[in-house]
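Field log, afternoon session.

UNIT: design team B
ACTIVITY: writing a sequence onto a fixed backbone
BACKBONE:
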């Protein structure tokens, strides 16, 4: 895995989050908006959770996601040509339920209501 960079901006400032693999784990570097900071993670799952929380914090404090690098999409740009049909969705199957599905859904809803009533303190 190569280095990955997420870019955010706010009020003309730029902040970059860099995820770099090492032999022992991963480094997460934060550059911009103050002194550079680096965090080490031995496990990718812990890094991903930390980064997700950090990005949520950034978005909640006025930062806007600008881009990601490296570009992972391959092949040609599909949006340069129109579709043969104007609507790609299959309108004839959207929202259609068989009678058995309708009955099952109604039973599920009744059971949920009963469970909620049973949980209420008296």
């Amino acid at each position: 895995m190569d280095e990955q960079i997420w870019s955010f901006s706010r009020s003309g400032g730029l902040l970059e989050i860099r995820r770099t693999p090492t032999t022992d784990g991963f480094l997460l570097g934060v550059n911009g908006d103050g002194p550079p900071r680096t965090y080490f993670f031995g496990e990718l799952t812990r890094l991903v959770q930390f980064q997700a929380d950090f990005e949520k914090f950034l978005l909640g404090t006025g930062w806007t996601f600008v881009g990601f690098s490296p570009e992972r999409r391959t092949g040609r740009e599909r949006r340069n040509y129109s579709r043969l049909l104007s609507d790609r969705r299959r309108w004839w199957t959207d929202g259609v339920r068989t009678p058995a599905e309708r009955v099952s859904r109604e039973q599920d809803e009744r059971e949920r209501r009963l469970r909620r009533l049973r949980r209420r303190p008296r």
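LOG NOTE: The longest helix spans residues 99-119.
NEXT ACTIVITY: expression trials, pending approval
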